[in-house]
Amino acid sequence: MQTPSPRVQEQLAQVRIVLVRPVGPRNLGAIARVMKNMGLRQWVLVDPRCDPLDPEAVTMAVHGADLLRQARQVPTLAEALQGCVQVFGTAGRREPYPPEWQVQSPRQAFPELLAAGPVALVFGPEDQGLSNEELALCHRQIQIPTDPAYPSLNLAQAVGICCYELRTLLCPDPPLPPSPGLSKPAPFELLEGFFGQLEALLLQIGYLYPHTARRKMLKLRALFHRAGLTVSEVALLRGILRQLQWSQTARRRNLPQDD
After folding, report:
1. What is the CATH classification number for the domain harbouring 242?
2. Which of 167, 170, 219, 257 has the fewest CB atoms below 10 angstroms from its CB?
């Protein structure tokens, strides 16, 4: 995983995950784990209905158990949101919401969330989600796009998706560094040696005939050129060809001789 810059770490530290009346210790453990995976550490439990240090929560959190001990607990959502300049509430239900609300996906909404300052991302209870009154305390409402056939998400899954969206927005994947030798493009002479060996074997086994070899080899050349073979890939293919040539020669030696 890419190490975030100090600026990105500061932005992540401004994000507060708020869980309203969570009931499942296993969910709390899974959320602690994914928060730590994605570099988020600040969270608040509003009137929780389970103990964040329940053995099931600790087991699910694995190396994120320290976040369970750090979770702040408050009695009301309003108290959990103190100091936040932007609050995003997650809307999980499918019935119509007030027309004044512009419900967005996390990917649409999060660029503005990260540009704000201290912000909160609020999730409702597992069984019913946030009420309209609770969503009305939020500045914006977001909803994770899901298939209409089964739209309901588990709480830990919803938090995990949102944490991932935040992380990828701040830390886009860098290009993977090339592996020395493995991704080096094969030079002209190496490819020509391969094509010569391939043509000889295909003539030997009767796939090619002298009068059609040129036309078919043009097609095979085009195929391998499109593949953009590397040095190591050509070496792999030539090793296969050598084994096939040896097998073909050995088979012919073992054929019974005509009297």
Report:
1. 1.10.8
2. 257
- Concatenate the DSSP letters of all residues of 178-244 into one string: PPTTTSPBPPHHHHHHHHHHHHHHHHHTTSS-TTTHHHHHHHHHHHHHHHT-BHHHHHHHHHHHHHH
**Bridge partners, residue 90, by sequence:** 142
123 and 55 in a common domain: yes
Sheet containing 15-20: which strands, arranged edge to edge? 72-74, 42-46, 15-20, 119-123, 86-90, 140-142
74 and 193 housed in the same domain: no
Where residue 193 falls among pLDDT bands split at 50, 70, 90? very high
Q: Which domain holds residue 97?
A: 6-170
Q: Where are the alpha helices (DSSP H) in 14-64?
A: 25-37, 55-61
CA distance to 146, 208, 211, per residue, from 194 (Å): 49, 16, 21
| Distance (Å, whole) CA 242 – CA 232 | 15
**SS3 state at 42:** strand
Amino acid at the residue 253: R
Q: CATH code at 89? A: 3.40.1280.10
Q: Do 158 and 213 share a domain, yes or no?
A: no
Structural domain tally of the chain?
2
pLDDT at 199 over 70: yes
